[in-house]
Design goal:
4 strands, four-stranded parallel sheet, 169 residues, alpha/beta
Amino acid sequence: DAFVDKNGNNIQDRDEPAVGDFALLRDMGVNTIRVYHQTFELNAELFRDLFKTYGIRVIEGDYLGVYAIGSGAPWSPGTDYTNPEQRARMTASALDMVRRYKDEPFVLCWLLGNENIYGVANNSNSKPEEFFAFLNEVARQIKEIDPEHPVGICSGDVLYLDKFGKNCP
């Protein structure tokens, strides 16, 4: 339970009732949050309440191999975007996310990756064309399952923007 510390004493006084994080988010003007379905089970009931009661939607993401999450690769050398077995695991993870949550009212869109282009426990920085081509494949498969929600990429900046444009239309 969160509360508004009206007098700034860092203590919850009697006139400062618990309002909860969701109400505070709404009161701050938040209308969307981002979560990843890995490495824990999403609490769909909680997100339904978040949307129904507070009007806050969810951008739901799949790490798509960054930090070696979802690929089955060890941290070092990390995800290899040319490895067919790892690609199959990551694709299955992303498509499972979409199949499980596509009809939920709280879903705003799907997000793939999390600054993967920096090459943290993956080879996207040494093989950006392969990474973006794979990303495009996954996005196309998501759109086949769920044409109603947009698919985006969480990229850190404009590194490899030329390769993104060429390989991930």
